[in-house]
Design a protein that fits this description.
Radius of gyration: 11 Å
Structural class: mainly beta
Shape: globular
Helix content: under 10%
Oligomer: single chain
Strand content: 35-45%
Order of helices and strands: EEEEE
Number of domains: 1
Number of strands: 5
Number of helices: 0
Strand order of the largest sheet: 4-3-2-1-5
Distance between the termini: 37 Å
């Protein structure tokens, strides 16, 4: 059984195994493939069926 959150465009998230990437914003969602633009690592394609991105309630500027 595969579990993943239903991410929406514009959601702010962090990667649980890559905290140095910083906060990222969801750019696109295609099934379990989520493209996120992280502040310290740029655009990353995440397989949300393998990595559970952590939602960020409010982005701190």
């Amino acid at each position: 059984m595969t579990l993943f959150i239903d991410y929406s465009l514009g959601d702010f998230v962090t990667h649980p195994e890559m905290p140095d990437w910083g906060i990222g914003q969801v750019q696109s969602v295609e099934g379990s493939r989520v493209t996120v633009n992280f502040e310290n690592s740029g655009k990353q394609l995440i397989n949300a069926s393998l990595i559970l991105l952590v939602p960020v309630a409010d982005k701190i500027e």
